[in-house]
Amino acid sequence: MNTDLKKLELWFVTGSQHLYGPETLKRVDEDSKQIAQGLSRSKQVPVKVVFKPVVTTPAAIYDICMTANAAANCIGVITWMHTFSPAKMWIAGLNALTKPFVHLHTQFNRDIPWADIDMDFMNLNQSAHGDREFGFICARLRRSRKIIVGHWQEERVQAELGVWARAACAWHDAQGGKVARFGDNMRQVAVTEGDKVQAQIQLGYSVEGFGVGDLVARVNAITDRRVDRLVSQYESTYRIVKAGQDGKQHEALREAARIELGMRTFLEEGGFKAFTTTFEDLHGLKQLPGLAVQRLMADGYGFGAEGDWKTAALVRAMKVMAAGLPGGTSFMEDYTYHLDPAGPKVLGAHMLEVCPSISENTPSLEVHPLGIGGKDDPCRLVFNVPSGPGLNASIIDMGNRFRMIVNEVEVVPPDAPLPKLPVARVVWVPKPNLQTGAAAWILAGGAHHTGFSIALTSQHLEDFAEMAGIECLLIDAATTIRELKKEIRANEVYYLLAKGL
Ligand code: MN
Predict the structure, then answer these.
(1) Gap from CA of 449 to ligand 1 centroid (Å)
(2) What is the distance in A from the centroid of ligand 1 to the CA of 183?
(3) Could you give phi then psi for residue 387, rounded to 5 degrees?
(4) Ligand 1 center to residue 132 CA distance, Å?
(5) How many C-beta atoms lie closer than 10 Å to residue 110's C-beta?
(6) Global pTM value
(7) C-alpha to C-alpha distances, 431 to 187, 437, 477, nearest whole angstrom
(8) From the CA of 289, how far away is ligand 1's center (Å)?
(9) Which of 60, 93, 222, 455 could form a disulfide with 325 if both were Cys (CB 3.0 to 4.6 A apart)?
(10) Rounded mean pLDDT of the chain?
């Protein structure tokens, strides 16, 4: 999977006007180039920041916006008004711009040179009012955008830009992205359903269904030599836990390897970025794909179980946002509670499919029976997750809109070892606490499936939701049920009316 974000570009576009004469504009150009280079070199910014010559006319602004729209590697635009740029000039360009943009409200000089300041300095450092004029036209056009305030060399400013850029990378990745579904939805499950046409219109990715036989054909075509090679890779990568007869276990590993190779071939041939499976449709597969799904997720594929295509696409988006960051991201399910009032917490897991990118140490590779699905004993990686901040995110279809729900959590160690639990698991305390966090999540209609991450912050997800134009409800340390109810009620009205605009 291609998740090398440095191949992607943010275009740095500076606004000005002709009033200042060629000398000043030359200086504006040079300053802007220096800022673009500084941002591009920042460790906080995962993409290339590309300087574009200063724009001073409506035609030049329109032209740069149209060029950005068509540029394959351009994920978005940074706008900044070094000097005053009368904003009627921006109407046509902003109306045409289809890529996300961030308004960087900065100034070339950090400090006022108190002793030496004169009108030349004042004329060159005008973003304090120039950016307000630009802000007005963005507000007047109802253009959604991120506004970042502060000096461009400040670490916090670069970090905010980096977070937004990661969300823009995920947005770019979703446009034209494809999700493969092996089989359909788990029968009668509601939250994993939704409007796939609307998802493509709003979120950019297409969801394509396949009979599991199409996958089985690829699995059966895998040669024994390739299976042998992958099994020896398993043996050198994981701790293999011996259980039962050696011969039977080895056969299970070989079958898991064959499924992984078949799935990988299928996804690569079709150019898919995410996929779903369902245990209700496994005809011709000897095991429920567990290890295969785990390893494909670790390579950057999005995944959703039981036909959950929305979560599959969300996990993929989160993996793109998190590329290169410490920590990992996985498909997850709220599984079981510890309701001791002294320390209530959630145990998250799934039947098998948890991504080893969130593992604390080398996972163990184990083969155990699985009651659900009625198939041979499947292989799976088993591990714990390191303590620290994390989050769960969900996207649901409300009928008239998509709603994202994000809950910040604190990952904690299990109270005791879990020697008999044969799946990867993570224990967390939702913010602000389990009582309010779970009530808020359920009130909002959040799914039991989530994208779980210890690499991202809720800001990544909020920025992404803003780009997608979808509702976003954040459940964090400040959440109260009373306020959340108000927010949900206000959103019901807003999205009803906004649709008509
Ligand atoms: Mn599930």
Answers:
(1) 6
(2) 15
(3) -70, 155
(4) 48
(5) 11
(6) 0.97
(7) 32, 6, 5
(8) 14
(9) 455
(10) 96
* Longest alpha-carbon distance in the chain: 85
Q: Where are the alpha helices (DSSP H) in 151-223?
A: 155-174, 196-203, 212-220
C-alpha–C-alpha distance, residues 335 and 316, integer Å: 22
| Run of H or E including 459 | helix 458-468
How far does residue 350's CA lie from ligand 1's centre (Å)? Answer: 6
- Could you read off the pLDDT of 322-349 as tens digits, one per residue? 999 999 999 999 999 999 999 999 999 9
Pull the structure tokens for residue 448.
């039991």
Measured in degrees and rounded to the nearest 5, phi and psi for residue 442 equal: -70, -40
Q: Is-contact 421 354, C-beta < 8 A?
A: no
What is the amino acid identity at position 498?
A
Asked whether the beta carbons of 318 and 445 are under 8 A apart, the reply is no
How many Å lie between the centroid of ligand 1 and the Cα of residue 482?
A: 30
342 Cβ neighbours under 8 A, 6+ residues apart: none
182-234: pLDDT as tens digits:
999 999 999 999 999 999 999 999 999 999 999 999 999 999 999 999 999 99
∠ CA 363-369-375 to the nearest 5 degrees? 115
What is the pLDDT at residue 204? 98
Q: Which residues contact 277 (CB under 8 A, 6 or more apart)?
A: 182, 183, 288, 289, 293, 305, 306, 307
Sign of the Cα torsion 170, 176, 181, 186 reads: positive
Residue 315: which of 335, 329, 296 has the closest Cα? 329
Q: Which pLDDT score, from 0 to 100, does residue 309 have?
A: 98
Q: How far is the CA of 439 from the centre of ligand 1 (A)?
A: 20
How many angstroms is it from 308 CA to the middle of ligand 1?
8
